[in-house]
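Query form — protein Trypsin-1-like

QUESTION: What is the three-dimensional structure of this chain?
INPUT:
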Amino acid sequence: MKFLCLLLLIICINIYFVVGLDNLDDFEFYHRKNRIVGGINASINSLPYQAQLLQNGHLICGGTIISKLWIVTAAHCIYKSKPVWSIIVGSADVSTGGEHHKISNIIVHPKYDNQTEDNDIALIKLAKLIVFNRHKKSVPLAIVPPKTGDLMIISGFGKLGEYKGYPLILEKATVIVSDHAACKIKYQGDPITDNMFCAGAGVTDACQGDSGGPGIINGYLAGVVSSGMECASIYYPGIYTKVFNYHKWIIKTMRTRKSGFQEILRHSFFGKLIEHLFTKI
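ANSWER: The structure tokens for Trypsin-1-like are given below.
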């Protein structure tokens, strides 16, 4: 009897700790294995813009800090879902540490298509300002589209491989942007639109749990981890939402929501340019 009780206790504990990760598998399955494989452990100081999106206290997706009030993520992470969402910033540990934030608003792109994953981008407004320091900083939005051969830094807390487990700390890797036309041919059954771009194939890639996370090119947010076929597939590269195409939508959305617009403008390329010019006067 004691043995059975002990066994049940162990099972319950295991369920409690892995339920969030199991939910990730179910959540990601439909999205063509949204997917860091082949990466290395990363400190939050090296990726201070990384955010964690939690669903009922469990990590479900990644995100990117673009201002003290706003986070960018993938639309499929939060589409038609009403759980208790929260955000963690400033931590390289899964679901712990850092600065915890409640969410005041979620804006999914109005043209998001959950069948094709076109316009797979969303904005999250926090209930309070992030206190910036070396662990928590914003990253500016891309001002030029990614091009073939660009090196992109991806990061997240997703699976270490198609059939491997999840890391306990943040991972990062560098992938190469693929030729758009070639990627469209590889994904014949799934439309690769002009709002998407492809990157990585073979050794490094994003994997389940990395969705919504950042793709950084030359210090700018160029991509949002969206979808793909398998993890680190030799044939299929990962698919990313092209942030450049949504620059105006992001600015407009933040302007209509009033608070937060000045923050994103200040941290954008143009804001930094204006600040630089005024300091020279």
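ADDITIONAL NOTE: The radius of gyration is 19 Å.
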